[in-house]
Write a structure and sequence with these properties.
2 copies of one chain form a homodimer.
Chain A: E1 2-8, H1 10-13, H2 20-31, E2 35-42, H3 46-59, E3 62-66, H4 77-84, E4 89-91, H5 93-105, E5 119-121, E6 125-127, E7 136-142, E8 145-150, H6 154-172, E9 176-185, H7 189-195, H8 197-200, E10 206-212, E11 215-224, H9 227-245, E12 249-252, H10 257-267, E13 272-276, H11 282-287, E14 299-303, H12 306-313, H13 317-323, H14 328-342, E15 346-352, E16 367-373, E17 378-384, H15 391-413, H16 418-424
Parallel strand pairs in A: 1-2, 1-3, 3-8, 13-14, 13-15
Antiparallel strand pairs in A: 4-5, 6-7, 7-8, 9-11, 9-12, 10-11, 15-16, 16-17
Helix pairs in contact in A: 2-6, 3-4, 10-15
Chain lengths: 425, 425
């Protein structure tokens, strides 16, 4: 089953409203084993809508429309559907009843314009709207061909999807699609591409890498008539990829660097403390995005000035004079200093040049040092980010590098079953 | 001039990634007086991309493509463009140089697959990518017909748009559209709606409110053949709105609460220091997103544990026992404590329940206290956010409330020309 999503609305085409409906529907369809092949976003113009419907009806089994079901004159999706399939619009009494009830419940006289919302293409069935006045439709307009129309208001659309459309479509679809994302950090996209080139050429499972900031996400999409077969296809490809990407891999689907770190810290009963300069509190904020992080986060510092570095976490003035605030030694002393001050098991210090000003030929914008220590070890890492990135991007990437080095530190230094701990994360 | 936006990528069509590019581009085009008539989102399939380009070239003057310019085998947008217009792909030496330089600057051997990114359709000009390896193209393929291709990575696309494409297209467009956004915080959308109802009914300028998290943005869109007329139309409506919204207004277009605060702090030669609990470093991170913030940020703390609150910033154990960590008194003592420790002019303390667990009937998730002080004053504010919001949303909103109270504190306490200081921000 192949689907096409058509979203109607000037506000979408002109960019006034972000189109979250298309993403929601595509995801939901995929979870039913229905692949979308295209989204088309058109204005409130009858010919544009009609043309998109006619085109889609030739190559897709399922056409999903959103928007243009309101009571005003520019709401013309039903007209477009009727015209595309050359049928009349007729008053649907169920729909009219529902609309009347909607207003009665609010003690409001139904505006005449709302009566229009009960007009649906002859042959179609209404999809009740539990939260608004605009009913949708569902219509098998041909053997194995379906069209559904929803209001454009995201809340109404999703309610109608969940309450009625989803189950209807579930019964139509036969294929099983299994999708998994393998997230990696610290490796360029092209290098990942080289490692998995042969897998990317396969048809099933489909394997494709995507870049989300510093993270390279490899998506595996396996399909089969049998659910078990789809799962085993996916599992085999996953194993093969993980064998090739090793420690670059950090987690699945909704895992984040900070959620993986959370699992590692809790498993080993460790606490961590951060002293930030260039990232300005972002690492601390990311770590506390995880619910339950108060178990391992006690005290973090943003030591932005030299004085704060000296007075709070004991960075030596000597080091700052000899090597500068952005240096290997400063990062190390920050890590040690915050570990001591907080009494935590692990300390992390980060210093760098977030830009856009403050760079020199020797220390360009994007230069970052990350120190990480526990009672036994003290590592320092140098990262040179692209100097031309905007400030917040450098902060974000520096933060992700620091989190990734912290993850690797935890894997290296603590005697746990490394493989398992990531995979369970 | 009529535009069509074509976004390429399986991840968009399957709903894995929200399509923010199309909205950005449609908005930007509109600001140049160029109306979009359609968006088409297609998979990484050469025939689908080619078909969309051919269709668009018949009805639009400007075709904008995003995505599919990466180094991997499924990146085929350039091939599709070449094929649609029946030209060859040739190596562009400028592009190749830029890609080589990109890797040289990072001391990394260029992967062979990246060479592919220098292949562009014969006749096209490259759009330099200042932040990544994939160049774009701009190509007048016929009289009054243009095609532009950008990478799909949003920040690469936006940088390239801002640095080169926008000016190019500005010269093509003829209509004068002036757009301005007035940003407000701390007032519900419906209340803003009541205040500007009459203005929203006008055709030119068009006035419409949008909600971006806690910020209510009122967009004014004025059009005229004459640039001066468009500007004066806009100016008059802006004045009228500002008269009605007062202190809720904090800035224009790209202003943020933190950028406005930056202006206020620098003007008054003040420093500020933050002690965070529930926001976990987010306020500190936001404040340091502003370039030059080291002028007024010296030391911030994330005192997540009670011990950190007691030991570092002198919150009394008594207060914590009697009122709890999430209380008016704790917020006040945190503000005072961090002000003293840092030696800064202003102290801000924030404590609350970010959820999803940890709430009680008396202190539900979303309860936040914000203390702000200088040497003369100590204020505390209570905010109850929607308990059902996800954790990161509560953190974000709590942070924005704190920043907004800090902004108001600065306006109230420091004898500056208040009106001017915001408007210049």
């Amino acid at each position: 089953m192949i689907a096409e999503i058509i979203c109607v609305g000037d506000e979408l085409v002109l960019g006034e409203v972000l189109n979250t409906n298309a993403q929601f529907l595509a995801k939901e369809l995929l979870s039913l084993g229905i692949n979308s092949q295209k989204h088309t976003i058109v204005k409130d113009k009858i010919n544009d809508i009609k043309y998109a419907i006619n085109k889609a009806s030739k190559t897709s089994n399922i056409i999903i429309l959103t928007g243009g079901l309101g009571p005003t004159d520019d709401d013309i999706t039903m007209q477009a559907v009727a015209s595309a399939f050359d049928v009349d619009l007729t008053i649907n009494n169920d729909a009219l009843n529902n609309i009347e009830k909607f207003f009665q419940a609010r003690n409001i006289q139904m505006p005449i314009s709302n009566k229009k919302q009960a007009l649906i293409p002859q042959g179609a069935t209404i999809l009740k709207n539990p939260v608004g006045t605009a009913p949708g439709i569902i219509w098998k307009f041909k053997q194995n061909k379906f069209i559904l129309a929803f209001p454009g208001v995201p809340y109404e659309m999703t309610e109608m999807w969940i309450q009625s459309a989803k189950d209807y479509l579930k019964n139509i679809s036969s294929k099983n699609i299994k999708i998994k994302n393998l997230k990696h950090f610290g490796i360029p996209e092209a290098k990942i591409g080289e490692k998995i080139k042969d897998l990317m050429e396969e048809d099933n499972p489909q394997v494709a890498p995507y870049v989300d900031n510093g993270t390279i996400r490899i998506r595996i999409n396996a399909q089969d008539e049998s659910k078990e077969k789809a799962e085993s296809l996916l599992k085999n490809t996953e194993k093969e990829i993980l064998k090739r990407t090793g420690r670059y891999f950090y987690g699945y689907d909704n895992d984040t660097l900070e959620s993986v770190i959370s699992v590692l810290l809790k498993k080993n009963n460790l606490t961590v403390s951060i002293a930030e300069s260039c990232t300005g509190g972002l690492i601390s904020s990311k770590l506390t995005d995880v619910s339950g992080s108060s178990k391992y986060i006690k005290l973090n510092l943003v030591t932005y000035s030299n004085e704060a570095k000296i007075n709070m976490i004991n960075v030596s003035e000597q080091t700052l004079i000899a090597h500068g605030a952005v240096s290997q030694d400063t990062a190390k002393e920050m890590a040690k200093g915050i570990q001591k001050l907080s009494g935590c098991d692990i300390g992390l210090g980060i210093t760098g040049i977030a830009g856009p000003t403050g760079g020199t030929p020797e220390k360009p914008v994007g230069l970052v040092y990350i120190g990480i220590c526990d009672n036994k070890k003290l590592n320092v890492h140098k990262v040179q980010l692209n100097s031309k990135l905007p400030r917040f991007k450098i902060k974000t990437l520096a933060c992700d590098y620091a989190l990734n080095y912290l993850r690797i530190f935890l894997l290296n230094e603590f005697s746990i079953n490394k493989k398992t701990s990531i995979i369970e994360a």
